[in-house]
Amino acid sequence: MKKTTKKFIGLVIVTMFILSLLPTTVGAARVGDVVGYAQPTDIVASINGYQLESYNVNGYTYICVEDLRYYGFDVVYDDYTRTLSVARNNYVSQIDPQNTNPKFWQIGSNNTRKKILYTDIKTYVDGYYVSSSNINGQTIISFNELSRFGAVSYDDSRREISLTVSGLNTNIVAELAISLHNSLDYNSDWKRIIRAKGNVMMLIGTARTYVNNANLNHIKANIVPGDKAEIQETLDLIRANGYPVGSFYVEYRNSDGKYLTSFQIY
Question: FRET label pair with 73: which of 126, 178, 228, 259, CA 20 to 30 Å apart?
Answer without folding.
Answer: 178
